[in-house]
Design a protein that fits this description.
Length: 275
């Protein structure tokens, strides 16, 4: 009888231990698959010195031209986070309504424009990748497939007609030799269906290494601080000069293709906060 009671108690204890272990395992699995939030900060400057003040901050280009900006806007989309193993998490890929953002210097707070991303899988991320502009795949979804972002772009002056498509980068201001006194307007972007219209694709993807791992958890929201060096506009891999032949241009012509290629190199991650 005593042996029977002992075996019964042992059996109950074993079941409780097994149930507890299963619950702990389930809890661990739940924590492993939990999500968190991440913030990306964009700070526009010249020569990696941030906080361009519209209509005030003046830069001298490699060709000796002085220039400033009265409008400085660009579209960021297809944000991808890359973990320590090289695995990618794509944030609303080719879905502009949820995954495209307009970086407008006029909206900057203390020189910084903020993007908040949610539903990011818990992980340690070592790189960030994003598109400058809107990919053809997203554009060809049609106007109904991106109605919300299309309306935002129209309100921000970052679109032409639907047949023309989106403005990827809008730079406006003044330039000159002794002083910045001549108006310029450079708007880059794909002109609709690039295959049908036989025009170059100005959409670019940029991949940046993070100096510190961004550790996303349910409790930790990392902040990635990106500096955009607008000196690359005229003083990038190809030295450019504004002239009466290119100072008022829209679309994807040769000058704007050069501008796009220069601006692709303007981004770098300054630091990461894990708060």
């Amino acid at each position: 009888m005593k042996i029977y009671k002992f075996l019964s108690l042992l059996f109950i204890a074993f079941n409780l231990f097994t149930l507890s272990s299963c619950r702990n395992s389930d809890d661990d699995d739940s924590q492993e698959t939990s999500t968190g939030n991440l913030q990306i900060k964009f700070e526009n400057g010249f020569n990696n010195l941030g906080n361009i003040v519209l209509n005030q901050t003046v830069q001298t280009s490699a060709a000796g031209q002085k220039h400033n900006f009265s409008a400085l806007k660009y579209v960021v989309s297809n944000i991808t986070l890359i973990d320590e193993g090289g695995n990618e998490f794509k944030y609303n890929e080719n879905n502009p309504d949820k995954g495209a953002f307009i970086i407008d210097q006029a909206d900057a707070v203390a020189g910084v424009v903020y993007i908040d991303l949610n539903g990011i899988p818990k992980n340690n991320y070592k790189k960030v990748k994003f598109g400058l502009g809107i990919s053809q795949k997203a554009y060809l979804l049609g106007q109904n497939g991106q109605a919300e972002f299309w309306n935002k772009a129209k309100q921000k002056g970052m679109s032409w007609s639907w047949a023309g498509g989106y403005i990827f980068v809008k730079l406006e201001g003044k330039y000159g030799i002794s002083s910045a006194d001549t108006e310029f307007m450079n708007h880059t972007g794909n002109m609709g269906n690039i295959t049908a219209n036989d025009v170059p694709d100005l959409y670019r993807e940029i991949t940046l290494n993070l100096p510190t791992t961004a550790r996303v958890t349910a409790q930790v929201r990392p902040s990635i601080h990106i500096l955009a060096d607008l000196n690359q506009f005229l003083s990038g891999s190809k030295t450019l000069s504004l002239t009466i032949g290119n100072n008022m241009m829209m679309g994807s012509g040769p000058h704007l293709l050069d501008v796009t290629n220069n601006l692709t190199a303007m981004f770098k991650v300054d630091h990461v906060h894990n708060d």
